[in-house]
Amino acid sequence: MRGEGERLPAHVAVCGEHSPHTVFADRVVEHLDAVEVALATDDPWDGFVSYVRTAAALQARDRGIPDLVTMELSSAPEIDQLRTRAFDGLVRRVERAQAAGVLRADFTHPDVVLLLMANAAMRANGERRLGTGP
């Protein structure tokens, strides 16, 4: 129960405190936070690595993250807006790293998506081999 005058996080206020979309929004906000931390990092390489490591850690903690990044969310435009902000930030992070010469010019933002998809697949395969996954 919230105290009087205590504000809800923006994504909860938009989705509704008891909306099923609130859980999705929480995950997208975590992803957006990772992008924003990466963008705020002065060193272009460190910022890029920060994002990749954090995104991979989010995937390791929650197997639904890869699906959330790619799933159709037209019924939840507030979540789609958060996801768009995260994607746009990722594109800027890649471009900054390339402009600084610390990331190859032929490496593009779809390569980051592919890298994270591979990470998710490797995690799922490892869980199956260990008998700890579905």
Kindly list the characteristics that best describe this protein.
6 helices, 134 residues, mainly alpha, globular
Structure, explained:
With 134 residues, the chain is mainly α. Helix 2 (21-40) packs antiparallel against helix 3 (44-61). Mean pLDDT is 78; it is low at 1-15. The chain is globular, with a radius of gyration of 16 Å. It is built from six helices and no strands.
State the secondary-structure class. mainly alpha
On the 0 to 100 scale, the average pLDDT is 78
Total helices: the number is 6
The major beta sheet can be summarized as:
none
* Pattern of helices and strands: HHHHHH
> What is the terminal-to-terminal distance?
35 Å
Low-pLDDT runs of 5+ residues are 1-15
Helical content, roughly?
Answer: over 70%
**Beta-strand content:** under 5%
Radius of gyration: 16 Å
Count all strands and give the number: 0
Shape: globular
What's the arrangement of secondary structure elements?
Layout (H helix, E strand, L loop, with lengths): L9 H6 L5 H20 L3 H18 L3 H6 L6 H23 L9 H22 L4
Helix pairs in contact: 2-3, 2-5, 3-5, 3-6
How is this structure best summarized?
The chain has helices at about 10-15, 20-40, 45-60, 65-70, 75-100, 110-130. With about 130 residues, the protein is mainly alpha-helical.
